[in-house]
């Protein structure tokens, strides 16, 4: 018999307005081409949005700025949370019951954003969840598996397409930042237990901290100037840092997946 119930387990549901703004501005920035290149109105999924539908509402507003006909679908496994979203539905925004199967009535998604969802699963369960979610993507689609703190000042996410993981992005609120390595506590599930000597992500975070310390003399010019210098220093040292100063000034660093992938993986 075909399975009809949603696939997955209910999340804790913690959410706050603007909690996912760092990821949203990345989707509406370097990744906006995926939305713009879609032939028909693209679909963006906010998977496991939690106890409040606010992040789906915000996602629609931000992505509509680059693709006005985008359709955002908030998907939740908990029926009561879906019902909370229904009164907020409007053209381009809807809510429905579902899980990792991503029910879209036969259509594919250009973006699936799953934030603070897989963190409650074991590391061993992540590859299967990634594979299932990526199977729901359009040819140029993107899966974002991320984690952030309660108010969205510290975040990281893995980006994947249908071929597998592409990159890791870390994003910091720069004012008052003591050291970038604090993002270790908000790494996605696939990496959070790998921040130990001998693992690539550990080497990466150590390198970021060391470069941050090395650029301390620039602190008098402001945290942004210091952080841009950190990004340039890391790239000069051979790290595959992506994007450029416009993103770095936001406190955002994206590195190719090959530089942080768990030992023993591609």
Topology:
Layout: H1 21-27, H2 32-36, E1 43-47, H3 54-64, E2 71-76, H4 79-85, E3 93-97, E4 109-115, H5 126-134, E5 137-148, E6 154-161, E7 164-172, H6 189-192, H7 200-214, H8 223-236, H9 245-248, E8 252-256
Parallel strand pairs: 1-2, 1-4, 2-3, 4-5
Antiparallel strand pairs: 5-6, 6-7, 7-8
Would you give the CATH topology of the largest domain?
Answer: Rossmann fold
Helix content: 25-40%
Number of strands: 8
Which homologous superfamily in CATH is the superfamily of the largest domain?
A: Vaccinia Virus protein VP39
Order of strands side by side in the largest beta sheet?
A: 3-2-1-4-5-6-7-8
Number of domains: 2
The CATH architecture of the largest domain can be named as: 3-Layer(aba) Sandwich
Strand content: 15-25%
Structural class: alpha/beta
Overall pLDDT confidence:
95
**Distinct helical segment count:** 9
The helix/strand series, from N terminus to C terminus, equals HHEHEHEEHEEEHHHHE
Major sheet summary line: 8 strands, mixed
